[in-house]
Amino acid sequence: MTTHDEKVLDAGQLEKTSSGISDRRNNAIIDEFSPEEKKKLIRRIDKRLVLTLGFMYCVSLMDRTNTGVAVVAGMGVDLVFIGSRYSIMVLVFFLTYVFLQPPATVVLRKVGPRIFLPLIVILWGLTTIGIGFVKVWTDLIPLRLLLGVFEAGFFPGCAYLLSCWYPRYELQRRNAVFYLIGSMSSAFSGILAYGFSELAGKGAGADWMGYHFGPTEANPTAPKYFGPGLSGWRWIFILQGALTVIVGMVGWYFIVDFPELAAKKSFFGANFLNEREAAFIVARIEKDRHDAIPETFAVGKYLKHALDLKVWGFATLFMCSTTISYAIAYFLPIILNEGMGFNRAASQCLIAPPYVLAAIVMFAFAWYGDKWHMRSPFILANGVLALIGLPLMGFVDNVGARYFGVFLATTAANANIPTQDSPEYVPGITACMVAAAVIVIVTLLLDIKFSRANKRAAAGGKAIEGLEGFRYTL
C-alpha cells in the first residue's frame, strides 16, 4: 500500500544528481512538447486549478468577513454589540486561524489537497450556518474559534499548491487571478448579503430568532418584543454557509493533486494528467528552482526556517498587509453606515466599487510583475497608496473625499478600525498608517539584502539557497 508522498511518476523519467535533477534531463522532457501543446496543457491546468481554488477562496472571504454587513443588517442590535464585544468577536477568529496555519500546511502535504481542501471548506460552511442560530453574543466565541480552525489551512494551502504547479515568473499572474476572484466576493458580498437580509421575517424558529425591538434613546419606554420569522442577518449566515458547503462539494470533484501525483486516478476514477504531462510539469518546476519533489518531512528541518531573517521579513510584510486589509472587510459597512451616514442598503452596496478597482490594479501589478521580473516596486506603490488613502478616509470631513480615500486604501490593501473609536477612528487609522509605513521600510531593507546577495553570487561568491545560478527577484 502506497502513501500519499510516494511518487506516481516513473523513476526513470527523473534523474537525481548531486546538484539536483539534471537540467539536461529536464530540458529533454520539456522539449518533447511543441509550443502549442505546452500552451494547451497550461491553459487546461489554469482552468481546473486556478478557477477552482479561486471560487473556494471566494466563499472563504465571505464567511470570515461577513460580520460587518450582518451588523448593519441588525446583528449588532439583536446580540447587543456594546463596547468592545464586536471587536472581541472578530479577534478570536485569528487566534486559531494564525497559530494553526503552519501545521495545517504540513497536514496538506501528507493528506493531499484533493481531500484536505474540500473537506475544510465544507466544515467551515457548516460552522457558518451555525452562526445564524446563536442566541447571545457569547455563543459566537466558540464558533468563531472553530471557523479559524477550519479556515487556517486554506489560504496557505492554496498558495502552496499553486506554487507547486507553476515556475516563479508564471506564478504571480495565477496568484492574482486566484486572489481577484476572492476580491470579487468582497466586492459583491455586500450586495448578496443585502439580498439575503431581505428575507427578514421569513422562516420559522424560536421567538428570539426574529428581529429584536425595544427601548431606544429616542423612545426609552418602548416595549420589548420580537419580529416574526428569522432576522435578516441570520439569513446571511445560513445561506452563505449553505453556498459554501455546495462549493466545497463541487471542489471535491474538480480540485487537483500535486503535479507528481496528477497522473494517479482520483476517487471518481479519472486522472487529471497522463504520466507524460505530469513529468513535463515537474520538469518545469525543477528547471526553475529545483524543489518539485518534496524532501522527507523532519520537524528539526521545518523549524530551522524560523531562524531565517528573510522569512521574518516576508511574515512582517504579510502581517502588515493583512492588518490593513481585514478591517475594511470587517468594518467598512459600519464606517459607511455610522461614520459617513449612508443608509443600510447603501452601506452594504457601496463596498463593491472600491474592491472592483482594487482587483483591476492588483491584476495589472501582477501581470507586469511577472513580465518585468520584479516585485518590490509594486509593494512600495501599495504602501504609498495606503499612506494617502487612510488619512483621507479617517481625517477629512467631506464624505466624498472620505469615500475616495476608501478607494485608495482598499486598492492598497484595506483598513483595521475599532468600532469604539467611531466616528473619528483616530487610533485605528493611525495603526493602519504605521502598518503601511512598515511595509515600505521592510520592503526597502529586503531589497538591499537581496541585491547584495545577487551581486555576491554573480561575482562567484556563495550560491543563493545552495542553487547555482539562482537570483532573488527584486
TrEMBL record:
<feature type="transmembrane region" description="Helical">
    <location>
        <begin position="378"/>
        <end position="396"/>
    </location>
</feature>
<feature type="transmembrane region" description="Helical">
    <location>
        <begin position="115"/>
        <end position="137"/>
    </location>
</feature>
<dbReference type="InterPro" id="IPR020846">
    <property type="entry name" value="MFS_dom"/>
</dbReference>
<keyword id="KW-0812">Transmembrane</keyword>
<keyword id="KW-1133">Transmembrane helix</keyword>
<feature type="transmembrane region" description="Helical">
    <location>
        <begin position="425"/>
        <end position="446"/>
    </location>
</feature>
<keyword id="KW-0472">Membrane</keyword>
<feature type="domain" description="Major facilitator superfamily (MFS) profile">
    <location>
        <begin position="49"/>
        <end position="474"/>
    </location>
</feature>
<feature type="transmembrane region" description="Helical">
    <location>
        <begin position="49"/>
        <end position="74"/>
    </location>
</feature>
<protein>
    <recommendedName>
        <fullName>Major facilitator superfamily (MFS) profile domain-containing protein</fullName>
    </recommendedName>
</protein>
<keyword id="KW-0813">Transport</keyword>
<feature type="transmembrane region" description="Helical">
    <location>
        <begin position="86"/>
        <end position="108"/>
    </location>
</feature>
<dbReference type="Pfam" id="PF07690">
    <property type="entry name" value="MFS_1"/>
</dbReference>
<feature type="transmembrane region" description="Helical">
    <location>
        <begin position="311"/>
        <end position="333"/>
    </location>
</feature>
<feature type="transmembrane region" description="Helical">
    <location>
        <begin position="345"/>
        <end position="366"/>
    </location>
</feature>
<dbReference type="InterPro" id="IPR011701">
    <property type="entry name" value="MFS"/>
</dbReference>
<feature type="transmembrane region" description="Helical">
    <location>
        <begin position="235"/>
        <end position="256"/>
    </location>
</feature>
<dbReference type="InterPro" id="IPR036259">
    <property type="entry name" value="MFS_trans_sf"/>
</dbReference>
<feature type="transmembrane region" description="Helical">
    <location>
        <begin position="177"/>
        <end position="196"/>
    </location>
</feature>
<feature type="transmembrane region" description="Helical">
    <location>
        <begin position="143"/>
        <end position="165"/>
    </location>
</feature>
